[in-house]
């Protein structure tokens, strides 16, 4: 596989102006919305702009941002993964069991737990992708099945019990700050940067975009689109394993019922970030900003005293508005291209 071959199947803008317009209306658009929302809450909500609350927001954003990084790859190839919340629970209980019951030295147990978590997440992603491609079944159905399988496996594995008393060395990471920023947020940021690099600076990333945009063209050019799609699901599963460890470090528990609804939050972050559910369009920067926007929105509404039910309605409304705005943005981009 050569860089030239990948470039041959990757749509390229024909002029500088359309490319700049898409960039301004993409990442810059969601960035402006995030800044505006932050300013509104800083003015209207007491304690929103405090140092402690800003750290809280970063911590709250972390989990969804990590899941959204993996979800971006899946959505870019035209798929969807509804199982990430349940797989997160399965990864967490297995990792928690390794830490608390393996009898190994603490550092070794933590390392094995990390490997077990990401391995299980990647394995579930592999099953999702492989079954979807082998039998040409919509990923929506396959991952819905995995949602139930993983949730049931997590509850069976622990007899529906929550795991406590995780090693203190592991728990300390959940409260650690590096350069004023929570360590767990650095994990999300680093994963987002890696995801951005893969999508924008590698042949595989170009093929991910091209597969979602025109799968037949990629196949006719000699590339195996099925492998690309399966790898996208594996990447999503890998990030779920990382997210599970982050969750455990933050709350010091591993529960078989955690992660319910997390898949919808991750999808929302990707969509708000400008990705198309039909595949081929989106960006890691947009996804990360989308996750930040959702985190700021939730935190600000909470400080304003908005009830849980009202927060759900407002968040849903924001997602619908984002989809409508994205539709107009896409039409405008096509008009000026």
Automatic annotation (TrEMBL):
Full protein name = ABC transporter permease
Could you tell me the keywords of this UniProt record?
Cell membrane, Membrane, Transmembrane, Transmembrane helix
- Using the record for this protein, list the coiled-coil segments as residue ranges, or answer none: none
Q: How does it sit in the membrane?
A: Multi-pass membrane protein
Cellular component, GO annotation: plasma membrane
Q: Which PANTHER family match?
A: ABC TRANSPORTER PERMEASE PROTEIN YPHD-RELATED-RELATED (PTHR32196), RIBOSE IMPORT PERMEASE PROTEIN RBSC (PTHR32196:SF72)
Subcellular location(s): the record lists:
Cell membrane
Q: From what superkingdom does this record's organism come?
A: Bacteria
For this UniProt entry, the molecular function terms from Gene Ontology, in alphabetical order, are: transmembrane transporter activity
The reply on keyword Secreted is no
**Membrane-spanning parts:** 24-45, 65-96, 108-131, 178-199, 227-249, 285-306
């Amino acid at each position: 596989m050569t860089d030239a071959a990948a470039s041959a199947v990757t749509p390229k803008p024909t002029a500088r102006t359309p490319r700049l317009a898409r960039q301004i209306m993409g990442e810059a658009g969601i960035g402006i919305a995030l800044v505006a929302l932050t300013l509104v809450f800083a003015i209207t909500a007491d304690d929103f702009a405090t140092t402690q609350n800003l750290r809280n927001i970063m911590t709250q954003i972390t989990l969804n941002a990590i899941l959204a990084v993996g979800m971006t790859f899946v959505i870019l190839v035209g798929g969807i993964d509804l199982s990430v919340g349940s797989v997160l629970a399965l990864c967490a209980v297995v990792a928690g069991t390794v830490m608390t019951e393996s009898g190994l030295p603490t550092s070794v147990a933590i390392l094995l737990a990390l490997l077990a978590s990401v391995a299980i997440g990647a394995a579930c992603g592999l099953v999702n992708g492989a079954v979807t491609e082998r039998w040409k079944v919509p990923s929506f159905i396959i991952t819905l099945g995995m949602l139930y399988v993983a949730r049931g496996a997590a509850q069976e594995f622990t007899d529906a019990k929550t795991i406590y008393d995780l090693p203190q060395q592991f728990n300390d990471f959940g409260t650690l700050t590096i350069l004023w920023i929570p360590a767990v947020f650095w994990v999300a940021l680093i994963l987002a940067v890696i995801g951005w690099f893969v999508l924008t600076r590698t042949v595989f990333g170009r093929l991910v975009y091209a597969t979602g945009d025109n799968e037949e063209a990629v196949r006719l050019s000699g590339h195996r689109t099925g492998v690309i799609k399966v790898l996208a699901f594996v990447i999503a599963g890998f990030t779920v394993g990382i997210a599970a460890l982050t969750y455990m470090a933050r709350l010091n528990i591993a529960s078989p019922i955690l992660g319910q609804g997390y898949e919808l939050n991750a999808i929302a972050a990707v969509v708000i970030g400008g990705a198309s559910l039909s595949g081929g369009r989106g960006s890691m920067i947009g996804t990360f900003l989308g996750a930040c926007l959702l985190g700021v929105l939730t935190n600000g509404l909470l400080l304003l005293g908005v009830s849980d039910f009202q927060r759900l309605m407002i968040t849903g409304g924001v997602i619908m508005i984002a989809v409508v705005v994205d539709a107009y943005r896409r039409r405008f981009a096509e008009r000026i291209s």
